[in-house]
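step=predict obj=DDE-1 domain-containing protein n=223
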Amino acid sequence: PCTAHCSHGLQPLDNGIFNVIKGAYRKELQKLASLTDSAPVDKVNFVRAYTKAREAAMRKEIILSGWRFTGNWPINRHKALTHPEIQPDKEKLLEQFQTPSPPPLHSDDTPKTSRQVREMAKHRSRPTRRNYSKIAKGLEALEMKVAVQNARITDLEEQMAQLRRGKKRKAVPNPNRRFMALAEALATEEALPDSKEAEIEVDVDEKVESVSDQRANVRTLRS
């Protein structure tokens, strides 16, 4: 009654016999592991465990329960359509009716221009878009101010470069002039002792003359 491409939720064998066989086979393996110290299952033990599980599952009431549970027989469309295995995911269903959330932001995705801010506001609610618009306008004003300041800085740098190019070169001292100044200084130092000796000789002559005058005055008084 069910094609191979149908959901396993509508397959009577998947919902009846196979579930019981898997549970019974698991129990047989647990018993075998306790006896063989968890040794690998060989072919003989596999056939024995599966035979016991098949005997527990292949019963009339279990076979009919699979058909009845899936709504295949007796035919029950409501049970088939409301089977939990074929119901859509509730979380995905709610996401379809909700406002799409914007992608998460990382440090590299931080908006740096007004255009990027406006792009971020596209998937937001109306009040949020209004706030983003205000932020974008503020960024536009700052961008304009920065552009004006950059232009001014460029002009000042050009003016400074022109002033540097217009300055005169630093005067290089003439070595000949320096030599002449040094010679004049040496000549001045040599002339200083001669002048001092002349001053001393004049002073001595003046003292001799004063002593002679005093002796003449004394002789006059005695006579």
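step=describe
Residues 175-222 form the longest helix (48 residues).
step=end
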